[in-house]
Amino acid sequence: MASKQDETIDQVRSRLERAGKADRYIRVTRFMPGAEALDGFVLDVGAKWVSMAVIQSGRVNGFSTFRLRDVARVSARRQDERFVEQSLRLDETWPPPGPSFAVPLDSTQSLVHALAVESALVGLHIEYQEPDVMFVGIPTRPRKRRFTMAEITAQGEWDEDLSRWGVDEVSRIDFADDYLRRLATVAGPPEF
Questions:
Q1: Do 37 and 71 sit in the same domain of this protein?
Q2: In this model, does residue 5 exceed pLDDT 50?
Q3: pLDDT at 78
Q4: Which domain holds residue 53?
Q5: Above 80 in pLDDT, residue 191?
Q6: CA–CA gap between residue 147 and residue 158 (Å, rounded)
Q7: Are residues 79 and 39 both part of a single domain?
């Protein structure tokens, strides 16, 4: 687990921005105990959030957005960088592409609103309270401090009730990865 003294927010921002400009393969470690380390390529750094193309098994597997303030450490993945770049070139995904829509990173409200407009199926993380849990659904009705979400159960069925979330609860939002796409296929379109 990283400590708060690891890097200041300005140092973190600078390292993330440099890694993004140079297409460097990195690992991001965050402060929350039990929070997953993220490997990938920085796509953009906003005032509050960071967007990253996630790398798994040598290929892009969706996107992750996470709070800038939660980043404890940014480290290069030099031992795997050559393999990952060659693998992505073989897939014709070098440099790693961004999402098919604009992802605003300056506020949680604008991020959630963009995902709601796109009807994007997301993996919502509230790692401050439950680092091992991901809630899957489509954000709806974004407001200033709250939003609702139409959720899919682990069995691939749409829940009849909308869940309610405070924007301050959210630590990370994933989208467009293999698991989420497969879950969406099993669940079919939402009925809301």
A1: yes
A2: no
A3: 85
A4: 9-90
A5: no
A6: 17
A7: yes
- What is the spatial distance between Cα 104 and Cα 44, in angstroms, rounded to a whole number? 9
**What are the structure tokens assigned to 148, written together?**
């609702």
* Model pLDDT, residue 190: 85
Co-location of 56 and 18 in the same domain: yes
> What pLDDT is attached to residue 126?
95
Length of the chain counted residue by residue: 192
Of the candidates 64, 77, 76, 69, the residue with the CA atom closest to the CA atom of residue 4: 69
Q: What is the pLDDT of residue 141?
A: 86
136 close to 146: Cβ distance less than 8 angstroms: no
Q: Phi-psi bin for 112: left (phi > 0), alpha (psi -120 to 50), beta?
A: alpha
Instruction: Determine the longest span between alpha carbons in the chain, in angstroms.
Output: 47
Total of domains in the chain: 2
CATH code for position 69: 2.30.30.100
